Amino acid sequence: MKTFSAKTEAVERSWFVVDAAGQTLGRLASEIAKRLRGKHKPVYTPHVDTGDYVIVINAKDIRVTGKKMTDKIYYRHTGFTGGMKEIQFKDELAKHPERVIEVAVKGMMPRNPLGRDMLRKLRVFAGAEHPHAAQQPVALKLSDSK
């Protein structure tokens, strides 16, 4: 029996829409990362992008457990000396709720060109509307443990 290896041209991609309202950030991000990589498919091949497109709506209504709302801090650097910037989770959620999910998913993706290509298939929106109705995305129901 020969080992199957998926070809980039033969991969069939689907579109999924996920409602983030009331979902826990980490559990949601891990499921999204799994869909983007294609690990839910039987044709999964580590060196080929076999994943699907994922649309996340209602990013502003995401939740976290414990004291992460005030204790979780995002860091970035401007590139200049002493240019370290930090922002609390609650402030980032208020200003840019899309970034919160994007950063969480990015941390679960491979750190290479293939991982960056997979991350381009993620579309995150703060509200309930998205401009991808023409792709006929399928609603993806994720169960949250709490």
- Spell the H/E element sequence: EHEHEEHHHEE
Radius of gyration: 17 Å
Number of strands: 6
- The percentage helix is 25-40%
How far apart the termini lie comes to 44 Å
The profile of the biggest β sheet is: 4 strands, parallel
A few lines on this structure:
The protein has 146 residues and is of the alpha/beta class.
Helices and strands, with pairings:
Blueprint: E1 15-19, H1 25-37, E2 53-57, H2 68-71, E3 73-77, E4 84-88, H3 89-95, H4 97-106, H5 113-119, E5 122-124, E6 138-139
Parallel strand pairs: 1-2, 1-6, 2-5
Antiparallel strand pairs: 3-4
Salient structural properties:
single chain; 146 residues; alpha/beta; four-stranded parallel β-sheet; two-stranded antiparallel sheet
Outline the structure in words.
There is one protein chain. This protein is of the alpha/beta class. The chain is 28% helix and 17% strand. A hairpin with a 6-residue loop joins strand 3 and strand 4. Helix 1 packs across helix 4 and helix 3 crosses helix 4. The longest helix is centred in the N-terminal third of the chain and has 13 residues. The mean pLDDT is 95.
